[in-house]
Design a protein that fits this description.
80 strands, 7-stranded antiparallel beta sheet, 881 residues, flat, 5% helix
Length: 881
């Protein structure tokens, strides 16, 4: 039979047991600011006679606040005890949440529809159970639980927070335990301390009782916790620091958003004061190193800015409240109007003007600003402005305030004397009116007058008129702020123009040249220009009427009068010269029509209109010997050199050119080379026949110049001596201005045996190394060898002079005595000369060290003289000694 009893003595024992169990299962909350929540904790076990009858150990639904701050949460976790013995559970952990913040930690747990059975008995049924705790940095810690319709062993019970426990028991069948009963004690706790809070919706402590071997026993089974939450109060933060405020000044009326930088700013728990007056809209940025705030109103001057958090207050920052005119009032502005040119001294009166720094009129700054110490009077000088009312603003360091309106009065023109004058300008005019003070100029139809003089009273001025078009002209007095206008106020009367220069003053007889004429009184669209009575075209007059441009008409060569005419009359004529340009030239003949590329052909050109010609070009190259007859019908000229082919002939005139037909340049030719062959040593006298050789400057054989050139007067042949050359055929080129005459493979160099005449020096040491020069003929560069002492020096080690008459080589080592030298080329082997190898006697080592050495030196000297004489006297093929 189930019984429900309230027994304080048993409760005391049960709470002690439950406390011990909870101590073992509760998570450590040593860290300030930590928080955790659990949905269901089951820790049950019992063994009877060595048999496990109850075993369940599980935590279902758990959240632990992150150590670095933030929230851990889990929702809608199904409750089940997989693998448990003698214990089952069902329901849902609706939510477990744990949050760690800088200023508060909290936890929450909620379980619904819980049913817990042990040994097949329904022990606890809880439709809903919650636990919630908060641990703020400042203020009280809180713990709270909620329960609805709790059933213990099927009976409804009521648990009071932190009240006495509720016990219940029921008989159960347990093998080996007679008269067994399952006992449960339920409690509900909400605990707070100075540093933390804990709440458990249901704490259940279970035991088994019965008889074993005739003795009564109690077996602790364990505990069950439903909906538990715990938290610890965060550590108080360090006091904030503040390093800068931006901007560091602002209006006395406040309302300015400032940014403060520093450290330790706490969101929602940071205040800012300006000289003790709280700022508004304090917003701390993530990271706590910057915040923004809106300044409160304060008197002008410096103010301490203090940032405060739960950790304390930062050292104050400096901020300056600036005058913004919010206290200003106005009682007057005198005078209320003045000229648009500015310069009016204005007095503004009122109160609260202290701190003002300037006054603007329609946004333009005034000048000569002053303010009295009492802040009741300001004086300024108005700037120029357009006519009409102007917005007057008194400017403060942190704002501006509108003062009474000031009216600008436009200047006027009442008379212009005289009101007419010549279109050439130069009339001295007096203009009267109002507001002319500070006038900067006067225009007549936008053309500026000169020599402006303004009367100090500002009621009149004098000016000299510029040139203008005949007719009425608008007069404008230019004044800062607004101009004074008299539409059609001055009338220009037509006057004869003047012309002083025409540039250029000469040009082609066919016309078409643009000239510039300078003078006075030129009238746009009403000016004409004639050249000897023939009208120019495209006459354009520049503003001011002092220059114009025109395009010349065609006219005969020679001088022409240039006349400029306007409605006011005509200017004195200017001088212009028409130059021959070949436009009248007609070529009827060119004789001869061809000649050699070397030039020198005298050509006669016939036709008409040649008078004035100064030259003739052939493909742009000037001919020589130019003459033209007085009738202008015949030109003679000598052709310049040119490339072969047709050349354009042009007659050159001072102002142009005329086509003169085509002249054919004929290239030179080679018809024969005689003889066509000769020795590679050169020296062959060759006659080359062909055409166009007049003016020849040389003949090349394979690129090497021949010598002793003679050109026949008729230009049909040349004679020349061949240079040395490499055996084989080479191109022959007669060099001429304009184009060369070339006979490919025109001469055949035939190989001949070389000849050696001299060997220098004629002797050398047996060790070799002597650089020897051999003189003679027929040596071929790159193809010449030397044989000495029975050894052949290869062509790569023999250096042959370009003319083939000398070579050098380095003598090899050889025993003492005379040795033959021969030279070999593709043409054969030369005659033989001799070279003497001389040994160096050893120095004496015994006997008299002086006399033998003297004797040896004398002998060596004598031997040297003999050898030298023999070398100079020997002939080719004669060995020495």
């Amino acid at each position: 039979m189930t019984s429900i009893r309230r027994k304080l003595s048993i409760l005391a024992v049960t709470l002690v047991a439950a406390g011990a169990v909870l101590h073992l299962q509760s998570p450590a909350l040593a860290q300030p600011g930590s928080a955790s929540a659990r949905g269901l904790e089951v820790d049950l076990s019992a063994t009877v006679g060595g048999l496990v009858v109850i075993d369940a150990d599980a935590v279902i639904g758990s959240a632990v606040a992150p150590a670095g701050g933030g929230t851990d949460t889990s929702t809608l976790v199904d409750i089940s005890l997989t693998g448990a013995t003698g214990v089952t559970a069902s329901g849902t952990v609706e939510e477990v949440t744990a949050t760690r913040g800088a200023t508060e930690s909290s936890a929450f747990s909620a379980v619904t529809a819980l049913n817990l059975t042990v040994l097949g008995i329904d022990v606890i049924e809880a439709p809903e159970a919650t636990a919630a705790v908060t641990c703020p940095l400042t203020g009280a810690q809180t713990a709270e639980t909620t329960l609805t319709e709790i059933l213990l062993f099927g009976q409804t019970v009521v648990l009071t927070a932190n009240g006495p426990g509720v016990q219940g028991s029921t008989a159960v069948a347990v093998p080996g335990l007679l008269d067994a009963a399952l006992n449960a004690t339920l409690t509900r706790t909400e605990t707070t301390t100075a540093d933390g809070a804990a709440a458990s919706a249901i704490l259940a402590a279970l035991t088994l009782t019965g008889t074993v071997a005739g003795e009564q026993v109690t077996i602790p089974v364990g505990t069950v916790v439903v909906a538990r939450a715990t938290c610890e109060r965060p550590l108080a933060p360090a006091p904030p620091t503040s390093t800068a405020i931006d901007p560091d000044s602002g209006p006395q009326s406040g309302g300015q958003t400032v940014t403060i930088t520093g450290t330790g700013f706490v969101p929602d728990q940071t205040t800012v004061t300006f000289d003790g007056v709280p700022a508004t809209d304090v917003t701390v940025a993530p990271g706590g190193t910057t915040l923004t705030a809106v300044t409160p109103a304060n008197p002008t001057g410096p103010a301490d800015v203090v940032v405060t958090t739960p950790g304390g207050s930062a050292a104050p920052l400096d901020y300056t409240y600036l005058a913004d005119g919010s206290d200003a009032t106005f009682t007057g502005l005198t005078p209320p109007s003045g000229p648009t040119s500015g310069g009016t001294t204005v007095t503004i009166t009122g109160t609260g003007l202290t701190g003002a720094i300037a006054v603007d009129f329609n946004g333009l700054p005034s000048t000569d600003f002053t303010i009295d110490p009492a802040g009741t009077t300001i004086t300024v000088v108005t700037p120029p402005n357009p006519a009409g009312p102007a917005l007057v603003e008194v400017v403060f360091p942190a704002g501006r305030v509108t003062a009474p309106t000031f009216s600008y009065i436009a200047p006027t023109i009442t008379s212009i004397v005289p009101e007419t004058g010549p279109s050439t300008g130069g009339t001295r005019v007096t203009i009267t009116g109002t507001g002319f003070t500070d006038a900067t100029g006067v225009t007549f139809d936008d053309n500026p007058g000169t020599d402006l003089v303004v009367d100090p009273s500002g009621t009149s001025l004098t000016v000299t008129t510029p040139p203008g078009l005949p007719g009425p002209a608008d007069v404008l007095v230019l004044i800062p702020g607004a101009d004074a206008a008299a539409p059609g106020g001055f009338t220009y009367q037509a006057a004869a123009p003047t012309a002083s220069a025409v540039d250029p003053d000469s040009g082609p007889q066919s016309g078409g040249q643009t000239v510039t004429i300078t003078g006075t009184g030129f009238v746009p669209d009403q000016t004409t220009v004639t050249f000897d009575g023939v009208p120019a075209t495209d006459v354009t007059v520049a503003p001011g009427g002092t220059t114009l441009t025109a395009v010349t008409p065609a006219n005969p060569t020679g001088p022409a009068d240039v006349v400029v005419t306007t409605p006011g009359g005509s200017a004195a004529p200017l001088d212009y010269t028409y130059l021959a340009d070949g436009s009248d030239a007609v070529v009827t003949g060119l004789d001869p029509t061809s000649g050699p590329t070397s030039g020198g052909t005298t050509v006669t050109i016939t036709g008409t209109g040649f008078t004035g010609a100064t030259g003739v070009t052939f493909d742009g190259v000037a001919g020589t010997g130019f003459t033209v007859n007085p009738a202008g019908t015949t030109i003679t000229v000598v052709t310049p050199p040119n490339a072969a082919g047709p050349a354009d002939v042009s007659l050159v005139f001072p102002a142009g050119t005329a086509a003169g037909g085509t002249f054919g340049y004929i290239g030179p030719t080679i018809t024969s080379v005689s003889p066509p062959a000769g020795p590679s040593t050169g020296g062959t006298r060759v006659t080359i026949t062909g055409t166009g050789f007049t003016g020849a400057t040389g003949v090349d054989f394979g690129g090497n110049p021949g010598t002793d050139l003679v050109v026949a007067p008729d230009g049909t042949s040349v004679t020349v001596t061949t240079p040395p050359g490499t055996p084989g055929t080479v191109d022959v080129a007669v060099l001429l201005p304009g184009a060369d005459a070339v006979a490919e493979d025109g001469f055949d160099y035939q190989a001949v045996a070389p000849i050696i005449d001299t060997v220098d020096p004629g002797q050398g040491p047996t060790s070799g190394g002597t650089v020897v020069t051999v003189g003679g003929s027929g040596f071929v560069p790159g193809q010449t060898t030397v044989t000495i002492c029975g050894r052949t020096i290869p062509a790569g080690e023999v250096t042959v002079g370009q003319d083939g008459t000398s070579l050098t080589f380095r003598a090899p080592a050889c025993p003492p005595g005379n040795t033959a030298i021969t030279v070999g080329t593709p043409g054969g082997v030369s005659n033989t000369l001799f070279f003497r190898y001389v040994g160096v006697p050893p120095l004496p080592v015994t006997g008299d060290p002086v006399r033998p050495l003297i004797g040896f030196s004398a002998a060596a000297t004598a031997l040297g003289i003999v050898l030298l004489l023999c070398t100079r006297r020997r002939r080719a093929g004669e060995p020495v000694g």
